[in-house]
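call fold(seq) -> tokens
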Amino acid sequence: MDRLKIKELPVCERPYEKMSEVGAERLSNAELLAIVIKTGTKSYTAVELAQMVLKLSHDGRLSSLNNLSIEQLMRVKGIGRVKAIQIKAVLEFSKRIATSNGVVRHFIKSAGDVSNLMMEEMRYLKKEMFKAILLDTKNKVMKIESISTGSLNASIVHPREVFSEAVKCGCNSIIFVHNHPSGDPTPSSEDIRTTERLVNAGDILGIKVLDHIVLGDGRYVSLKEQGYI
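ret:
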């Protein structure tokens, strides 16, 4: 039996027409992604290609797709470099909306607030990423700055780089956050030493270090709560 092309499907099953008729919120994840992909192949419709892309998420979470490279997306038969780049662009844009562009509405009152803000972005990273959350006098997030990639040590996380943007922004306080790719957020001895060094540097600069959060897979540890700050 010949397969139907998207244009031969009922209107209610065509992503473009369906979105126009009932709105984006009524579309499935695959249908939304199919609109980004635009066209299918001789073997698969755009929706079917989208379904295959979504299956690349190892745990079923949409946020996990952010960690896929262009080359990994191209492993789906029918997803060439152009389509892969389009998908990556949309994923990056959505991530920025959820984090960077939306931080002005975030107030940090606890370590849990930091976890809620950063967990989905950082829990599946394959390498350690060290970030600084810059806060104003009311603990509202001014900016989230990526500092370094790689295991924490004195050469990678130097106070000069860590506090450079904080000084420029004139922030009142700062919270550090980094992930453990192993999924275990237990702080290492180097994590603790780095934190103590940065707290001392912050005191000299007049920028209070409120906490250092270590993120694992769905879990976190606050070095402040552990008594290291």
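The chain is about 40% helix and 15% strand.
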